[in-house]
Amino acid sequence: MRVLVVNTGSSSLKLALVDEGEATLGERELALDGGRVDPAELMATVGEFGAPEAVGHRIVHGGGRFLVPTRIDREVEAALRELADLAPLHQSPSLAALDAVSEALPGVPAVACFDTAFHATLPAAAATYALPKAWRERWNLRRFGFHGLSHAYAARRAARLVGSKDNDVRIVSCHLGAGASIAAIQRGRSVDTTMGFTPLDGLVMGTRSGSVDPGLLMWLLDRGGLAVEEVADALERKSGLLGLAGTADMREVLDRAKDGDPDAVLARDVYVHRLRAGMGAMVAAMEGLDVLVFTGRVGERSPKIRAAAARGLSYTGVSLHTERNEEATGDAEIGSGSAPVRTFVVTAREDLEIARQVRAVLG
């Protein structure tokens, strides 16, 4: 089954045609204009790839209803639109892409694959907010977690790399990109993660703040005189590395920090501090660690961030091999040969995970 994978981000749409042997027959990244893709460009790209037999859409938020990949029909599409407010940077562009692809490929079955679904296995202790029961039940307030497609692939790939056929390993998966999160994965199941009800929670990201004291936000609204919309926009688009250093590009942050730029040094140090804290929490959730994985653009391309993060977990048995870490490309082991915890860089392949899920749904 040839699957067209539609991976919509906040500013671009990635298309990939994947065959049953996990070979990529064609791939292209299209720019989004106002959250929408140019229909003519989309049609031309699909025509170049050749006709798919199914389509898989990455959907960031499945809420409490969509806990597994789901074939898309009108009822499902309507339900997805109701969840748009929970992930405004991604959900609306994903739905716009769904409309455009459906128009370009009428009659081709489509499956929604959710970033939240992998974390449906979170135990109650990890998923529950200490909020009034009436609130939790009325609005289904809980920690959903995100980047599940990436974490699922990285964990399965890492388990293969260490030769674990039954996934009986404790894995900390660090997806570090423009968005960033960590997951604790035990026996192939997510048992904790750093993101929460929305993708704003957890680590410092490119433009997103990560965890912020809710009392601080209430102070800004009540005493600071800021509007809800102003705070929301700042947390999503003007915070994180951008808010600290004036750039969301980790490469620029590290280059400037090397030259002693104080804002860049602060941004790097805050990023690493939060990253180490999140990794430590994931280790504690599993009462130990067997495999550490870095994935995502920063995770794959920044040996300095990997080294700084790993030093914070040296007490668990993590130790990187300097040359392996510096020279890693593709899927690579970067840990010291004598370290009890094995450490890998795994190329993010959400497309393969989505294609796998589509085939599972459609048979």
Instruction: Spell out the helices and strands N to C.
Output: EEEEHEEHHEHHHEEEHHHHHEHHHEEH
Q: Which structural class do you get from the secondary structure elements?
A: alpha/beta
The largest sheet is:
7 strands, mixed
Number of strands: 13
Return the CATH architecture of the largest domain: 2-Layer Sandwich
Radius of gyration: 20 Å
The strands making up the biggest β-sheet line up spatially as 4-3-2-1-5-7-6
- The fourth-level CATH homologous superfamily of the largest domain is ATPase, nucleotide binding domain
List the domain count as a whole number: 2
Number of helices: 15
Quick synopsis:
This protein is α/β, with parallel strands linked by helices and 363 residues long. It has 15 helices and 13 strands.
